[in-house]
Amino acid sequence: MTSLPIAIVGDFNPNNQSHIATNDAIEHSSKSLGTPVEGRWIGTEELARPDGKRKLANVRGFWIAPAGPYKSMDGALLAIRTARECRSPLLGTCGGFQHIILEYARNVLGFADAEHEESSPKVSRLFISRLACSLVGRTMAITLVPDSMVARIYGRNIVEERYVCNFGVNPEYVDTLRSGALRVVGADAEGVVRVVELSGHPFFFGTLFLPQLGSFPSHPHPVVSAFVRACSDVPAAVYDR
Q: Residues 21, 162, 22, CA angle at the centre, nearest 5°?
């Protein structure tokens, strides 16, 4: 059986637990579903080159990996925009979630100067800002919107997940984000944004938490399995134009 090619967009570090967990989680879901998967790590700098989009040829889905700042924000945003416009399955976790917000703010909402505080701390339009309290190493409850796809994937409306992040959606721009099709479908007890999904897209999710840290061989994470299943349901596409 031919392996399903999935692009893992990020700057792979073998010493980063979240990166190893990403590979492991895909393997867990692959074996559980009986769907061979080839996870292809693609560096953000590779995508930022003039012919970078060719690196995405024939992949069936995109996982925007954690850990930042990326070596090239432009490369990461290119992959996210490609998945959004071509309706290819996409999952963004932690840093991936944050850059989903930036891509949407820039290319859909029209804020070309939308930035991330980690990489551009002195600019005025920070859609992603430092969290008031670090979430590194914390496990927290998240309430999901009942009619959302992510709630259907979990089969319940309250879940607990692990975080390793210090940045999230700037509270000043939450209402601005809600004006578009990128829905806020998960929040913590204080109502802070933790999960987004794009209405009308077959599978386009961002989670500030890391589902891969909750995946095990005997119990693959439901979000990762849903992502792999979505990738297997779409035809291969060529993104080099």
A: 15
Q: Can you give the three-state secondary structure of 74-143, one letter per residue?
A: HHHHHHHHHHHHHCCCEEEECHHHHHHHHHHHHHCCCCCCCEECCCCCCCCCEEEEECCCCCCCCEEEEE
Say if pTM beats, i.e. exceeds, 0.90. yes
Amino acid at 160: E
Residues forming a β-bridge with 129: 168
Q: Tens digit of pLDDT for each residue in 156-187?
A: 999 999 999 899 999 999 999 988 899 999 99
At residue 162, the pLDDT reads: 94
Q: Which residue pairs, CB below 8 angstroms and at least 24 apart, start in 145-148?
A: 145/183, 145/184, 145/185, 145/186, 148/183, 148/185, 148/186, 148/195, 148/197
CATH code, residues 4-232: 3.40.50.880
Integer Rg of the chain from CA: 16
CA dihedral 189, 69, 116, 201 (to 10 degrees): -70
- Dihedral, CA atoms, 171, 84, 23, 227, nearest 10 degrees? 100
Domain positions in the chain are 4-232
